[in-house]
Design goal:
It is built from two helices and six strands. A hairpin with a 2-residue loop joins strand 3 and strand 4. Helix 1 packs across helix 2. It is globular, with a radius of gyration of 12 Å. Pfam families: DUF2653 (PF10850). It comes from Paenibacillus haidiansis.
C-alpha cells in the first residue's frame, strides 16, 4: 500500500487535531526532507507552530491506516520515500 503526500498530511492533521481538540481543517502541515535531519515537518495548529520529526510522522501514519483502512501497521512496516513528493510505503 502506498500513501500519497496528501494522505500523509491528512494523517498528521487528523492526529494533531485529535491531540489538541481542534478540527482537522484548523491544522496546516508542511513536510520536508533534508540530508541531515531526514523527514521532518512543521505543523500550525491553534495559532502555534511546532516542529515534528520522522517518529511523529510515523505515529500519525500508523493511526491513520488503522482508522481509515483497518490495517495494523507497525513502524518497521512503514518506509518513507522521496521521489517528486514524499510517500509512505506500507508493507502488509
Amino acid at each position: 500500500m502506498i500513501l500519497s503526500m496528501d494522505e500523509i498530511i491528512n494523517a498528521i492533521c487528523l492526529h494533531t487535531a485529535e491531540r489538541t481538540g481542534l478540527r482537522p481543517t484548523d491544522v496546516q502541515v508542511e513536510l520536508s526532507w533534508d540530508e541531515d535531519t531526514g523527514y521532518t515537518g512543521e505543523v500550525w495548529a491553534g495559532g502555534r507552530s511546532r516542529y515534528i520529526v520522522e517518529s511523529n510522522i510515523m505515529e500519525a501514519i500508523m493511526q491513520y491506516v488503522y482508522k481509515e483502512y483497518g490495517i495494523r501497521a507497525f513502524r518497521e512496516d512503514i518506509t518513507l520515500e522521496l521521489d517528486e513528493e514524499i510517500t509512505a510505503s506500507i508493507r502488509q
